[in-house]
Amino acid sequence: MTSAKDIRPRGDDQAQFLSTSPSTSFHSPSSHQSALNRVNIPVNVKHLKPFATEDIKVLLLENVNQAGRDILKKQGYQVEFLKSSLPEDQLIEKIRDVHVIGIRSKTKLSARVLKEAKNLIVIGCFCIGTNQVDLQYAADQGIAVFNSPFSNSRSVAELVIAEIICLARQLCDRSSEMHNGTWNKVSNKCWEIRGKTLGIVGYGHIGAQLSVLAESMGMSVIYYDVLNLMALGTARQVETLEQLLGQADFVTCHVPELPETKGMFGQQQFEQMKQGSYLINASRGTVVDIPALIEAMRSGKVAGAALDVYPNEPAGNGDYFNNELNSWGADLRALKNLILTPHIGGSTEEAQSAIGLEVATALTRYVNEGSTQGAVNMPEVSLRSLTIDEPNHARVVFIHKNIPGVLRRVNEILGDHNVDKQMTDSRGDVAYLMADISDVNTTQIKELYSSLESLSSRIMTRILY
Ligand SMILES: NC(=O)c1ccc[n+]([C@@H]2O[C@H](COP(=O)([O-])OP(=O)(O)OC[C@H]3O[C@@H](n4cnc5c(N)ncnc54)[C@H](O)[C@@H]3O)[C@@H](O)[C@H]2O)c1
After folding, report:
1. Is 207 near ligand 1, meaning CB less than 6 Å away?
2. Which residues are tagged catalytic?
């Protein structure tokens, strides 16, 4: 790996001081080392360095996964790692100093906190959701936000496969009977899954993974999606939800939470299901009308169900799954052949590692190359990398207010130079411009920087070289 100018890896002593040692944890062969290998940037790609900042300082909170930490450290950034989140006053103190912050769901990056983050250029949410960040305020300050929405798809798909077998064999009931000292050997209404039909509602990242796994276990797969999507293997798309419900022995739900999917499974849908079929919901809690499910299970129409998500979920672990949380809690818990899990579909070491890899890679690309691909609050702009064969090139990143006339002013400034490539896009009030210019020296870079900084539309200027 060749670095262009001067991102100096810190000495080992300092790295140890700033970052904790690896924790012993299980990594599957596909996870950690190969994750690191995959982010190795091709040999002749030039690492760029932000102009007008010190070496990159990164603050990682909430025990961000090691795969992510390693990627950032490997870049030579100064990485400070903390296992917990911070109270707001301490967070404000720390955030003033850093260019990059990595958080999970507990750290609230409100406008009040971000206002103090004078050096911050990017936020990495090492999780799925981004509600904990004031995305609009961040965008208005030119701070990009990245997350990892699909890193746990495989984990969810595997859980669903496990649940299909558990439901078909009433496994959880037998297990809890044994825990209570009861030997109850039965085969009545216990089935193999081979030859049964799985109906997947929502054939996206999770639905498609599941389709492949289910077929390999001898199931026939049909799916319903609002989009026309190419089938994997011998799976078959059906035109309506009703068609799916009428054919499937197992129905599993993988749609996003949208106004259209709220209560998507209610009394009518349970009536349309096959007698003695099964329902699995690991999508979002609002998708299934739980009182209607309770009725369908009591009547025997639905022979079993697995729920991983609920309309109301507690904020932390503890004795919270009761009627205060959801009024039907006790009725639900009393049902037979019902698997209840606390939103763990995506909770695996591999998923955490994949999240670490994806978010840290996105942060690195943003810091080094200015690419906003995958950002949740900025337009997605990317240019191919500069190479070490282009020594006097620089990349201009100009984040600005999306108002008329800005591009003319920017191009007047860039116009004295040879602009090799340029891309711009906007999202709401914020626009993002990237341009690679050739044959520039340090003095000219400084002039360019000051000229862009003086424009009234400017939100943030970065020049990478
Ligand atoms: N249990 C967990 O821990 C866990 C983990 C990850 C994701 N999830 C949830 O799983 C769900 C699916 O995730 P994904 O990553 O596969 O999402 P995705 O966006 O990749 O796929 C969703 C699919 O649903 C389809 N869809 C949207 N509206 C629909 C409708 N009304 N009817 C039929 N199809 C519709 C979309 O076209 C898309 O193909 C989401 O709700 C997500 O929040 C849960």
Report:
1. yes
2. 284, 313, 343
